[in-house]
Every structure is written in C-alpha cells, then in structure tokens.
Amino acid sequence: MNSPCNCALSKHILSAILSGIEGRTMMPSGMPVRPRCDVVSLFSLNVDATAPNLEQLVAEFVAVWAPVASRLSAVHAIVFGVFRLPDGRYSLDLNLGRGSAYRESTLAFARANGQHSIWDGRMSEVVETGLSGATGSTLTTPAEVEAAVMALGKGGTPVTKLGFTIA
Questions:
Q1: 112 φ, ψ (degrees, to nearest 5)
Q2: What is the pLDDT of residue 123?
Q3: Phi, psi at residue 52, to the nearest 5°?
Q4: What is the β-pairing status of strands 90-98 and 77-84?
Q5: What is the mean pLDDT of residues 75-85?
Q6: pTM of whole model > 0.90?
Q7: Does residue 131 contact residue 116 with C-beta atoms inside 8 Å?
Q8: pLDDT in tens, 8-53
Q9: Nearest to 112 by CA among 44, 42, 64, 38
C-alpha cells in the first residue's frame, strides 16, 4: 500500500468522513467554508466510510484533483466537498462555485455531468437537476474538467471568484 498523503486537505476530508458529518465544503487548503453561491460538482468519487483502504482512497483523490484545483482556483471558485449519501457512502467532490444568475446553465451542466442536484449556498438547500438520480460524473479526467470549467466561463456565463465565508 502506498503511503497516505499528509496534506491538510486529505486530513480534513478523512476527518469529515470519520466524524460522520453530513457534509462539508472546504477550500483546497482544507479550510471549511460556507458557500454563498451555487455549487456544482465537476468530479465525484463515492467511497465507503468503512473501507479498509479509506485513507488511501482519499489520498489518491487529493493527489489527482488538488493540482487541478490549484490551477483553476486562481480565476475560478473551486472548492472540495464531502457529503454523506443516502446509502451511507460518502461523495468526495471537486466543485465549482457559480453565481445564481447563471443557475440555468449550471443546472444544464450538472445534468450533462450526471449530477442529481447542485447546492444553493445562499439558501443552504439542494436544487434538483431533474435527473432521477446521480449517475456519476461523466467528466473523468483532469483535462476534461479543466476544459468544462473554461467552457462554462464563456458565452455570457462568466465563472468568477465568488465569496465564501469561513465555516
């Protein structure tokens, strides 16, 4: 087994899962935040909290997606999420914050990416996309995610840094 990642983000994600928390949004540094915008998943990985290799799964998720977040977060509102699913597993998410003025294009993107819902950070509620259930991210590589974020930022639907408050 590979050595687990010791970075703060991995520790915060693992801590959230092991504490049984319903959900947490955090900056790429691992600092918990409360979004004040719509949050849509770019990539999701579902994990079992009782998996014997949970620490390794989290470390591998962070190893792949933290560099993507680093590249994108200079211009875009990129956050990580950990959320308990109805079946007890946890969804590890790389997310994009978008203004609610772009809700329709955000929902269209989420549907195309197999997401059941987005998160309305201002109202602290789920906004369903119209899919009966999440089918999992159709975006599976860093290159696909980065291209999607750039495409969402064009055509009158700018993706800009949005406010987050410390949780």
A1: -65, -25
A2: 94
A3: -65, -20
A4: antiparallel
A5: 91
A6: no
A7: yes
A8: 999 999 999 999 999 999 998 899 999 889 999 999 999 999 999 9
A9: 42
Quick check: 74 and 161 in contact, CB under 8 A?
Answer: no
Burial of 4-22, coded b for 16+ CB within 10 Å and e otherwise, reads bbebebbbbbbebbeeeee
In what helix (H) or strand (E) does residue 103 lie, and over which residues does it extend? helix 103-112
Cβ atoms of residues 68 and 9 within 8 Å: no
Q: Where are the domains of the chain?
A: 8-154
User: Do 41 and 129 meet the contact criterion of CB atoms below 8 Å apart?
Assistant: no
pLDDT at 101 over 80: yes
Residue 165 Cα distances to 37, 47, 107, 122, angstroms: 11, 27, 23, 11
Alpha-carbon 118 to chain mean position? 10
Give the rounded percent of residues in the chain with a pLDDT score beyond 90. Answer: 57
